[in-house]
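User: I've been trying to design a sequence by hand for this structure and keep getting stuck. Would you show me what you'd pick, starting by listing the structure so we're on the same page?

Assistant: Good idea, let's start from the same input. This is the structure you sent:
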């Protein structure tokens, strides 16, 4: 990030987001050649706008060279050599379970055997349409070096945090036959996502933030399949007339799609397809994550409001329930911010020789993005921490939950950024 972009983005920090966006245009930028990170930041991250990168950006990836046949199909033989006995999560696209597809863990070789038979039978099977999805291949096989995250997506706080605590990650491989699909949803914590087709083609249906409210039934349940005829029943979906038409994107082999924060989407594999998918977030959409957590907590509080006067620890129970539903609570969110802030402070204090960072990949990412980006990150953490300190539910947290003093962290940030702005 350059200094001009830092100053421009700093002025946008406190501008409120639009809660309901219209599908004003069905045009999506197609990026055919390298652009500066600052341009991507200003044109797509900050305005939260989708785009598609050409296959040029993935042509050197090992997975595109070795996981794909000359005919552009999945190279089953090569994949089996690498992952034959690996247990993988497989969903059945023909079965609905709580607005998702139920999963089972099976050996990779068993899924490939199924996939081969599925193709031979004209893309059908009595077992249903199975889809290998949410496989943590990167975490399980870090030495494979199958791909390299483009610089545009390298400011990735989500995976930086989970890597630091060695619990989880949000980097996935998807493999599915023609006809497999993912129901209507928005990504975890309202994160960004990027998805690269290693082979095959996908169709994406995307709705900007707020449009999903018109796609709920009369009970408030979000649509499972936005193409289902039942959505035209105004008795069941009373607000369907207010919903715009989705943004439809056909993603070709090798291309990367950038899905902005909070955009609900539904995805189909038009051919036998392999893709790399990351969920990620950073300072550009941190406010969206914080608002999402506040909305989730408010929803939990409404659900158990009747027990409020009978439970001494009602507020703490709300936090527990929220974490079970979303994967994070206010205490962990604060810890998340602290870890990000500490790494940026360490980077600025030692720049340009940032050897103090434990992760080589993190150090490389911060070096490539530069000190202005680290300063922007700290500005965003400051803004959200200040908002949290004024939040009544955050004030009610048991002090023992927080392992640091937010006020002290804010002072550290101010000292670190004083000479950078």
């Amino acid at each position: 990030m350059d200094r001009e972009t830092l100053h421009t983005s700093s002025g946008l920090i406190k501008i409120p987001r639009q809660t309901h966006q219209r599908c004003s245009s069905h045009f999506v930028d197609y990026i055919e050649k390298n652009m500066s990170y600052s341009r991507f930041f200003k044109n797509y991250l900050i305005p939260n706008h989708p785009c598609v990168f050409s296959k040029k950006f993935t042509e050197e990836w090992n997975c595109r060279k070795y996981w794909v046949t000359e005919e552009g199909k999945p190279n089953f033989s090569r994949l089996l050599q690498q992952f034959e006995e690996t247990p993988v999560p497989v969903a059945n696209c023909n079965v609905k379970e709580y607005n998702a597809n139920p999963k089972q863990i099976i050996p990779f070789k068993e899924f490939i055997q199924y996939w081969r038979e599925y193709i031979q039978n004209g893309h059908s099977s009595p077992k249903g349409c199975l889809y290998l999805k949410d496989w943590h291949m990167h975490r399980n096989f870090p030495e494979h070096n199958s791909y390299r995250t483009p610089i545009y997506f390298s400011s990735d706080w989500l995976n930086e945090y989970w890597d630091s605590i060695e619990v989880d990650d949000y980097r996935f491989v998807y493999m599915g036959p023609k006809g497999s699909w993912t129901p209507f949803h928005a990504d975890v914590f309202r994160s960004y996502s990027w998805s690269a087709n290693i082979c095959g083609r996908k169709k994406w249906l995307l709705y900007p933030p707020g449009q999903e409210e018109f796609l709920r039934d009369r009970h408030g349940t979000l649509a499972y399949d936005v193409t289902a005829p039942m959505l035209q029943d105004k008795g069941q979906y009373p607000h369907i007339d207010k919903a715009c038409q989705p943004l439809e994107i056909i993603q070709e082999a090798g291309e990367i799609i950038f899905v902005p924060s909070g955009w609900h989407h539904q995805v189909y594999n038009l051919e036998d397809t392999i893709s790399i998918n990351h969920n990620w977030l950073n300072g550009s959409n941190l406010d969206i994550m914080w608002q999402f957590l506040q909305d989730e907590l408010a929803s939990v509080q409404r659900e158990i409001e009747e027990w409020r006067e009978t439970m001494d620890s009602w507020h703490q129970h709300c936090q527990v329930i929220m974490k079970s539903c979303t994967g994070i609570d206010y205490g962990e969110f604060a810890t998340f911010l602290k870890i990000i802030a500490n790494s940026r402070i360490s980077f600025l204090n030692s720049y340009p020789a940032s050897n103090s960072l434990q992760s080589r990949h993190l150090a490389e990412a911060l070096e490539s993005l530069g000190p202005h980006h680290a300063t922007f990150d700290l500005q965003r953490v400051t803004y959200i921490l200040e908002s949290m300190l004024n939040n009544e539910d955050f004030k009610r947290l048991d002090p023992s939950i927080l392992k640091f003093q937010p006020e002290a962290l804010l002072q550290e940030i101010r000292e670190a950024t004083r000479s950078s702005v």
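That's my pick for every position. To get oriented when you compare it with your attempt: The first helix runs from residue 3 to 10. The CA atoms of residues 44 and 50 lie 7 Å apart.
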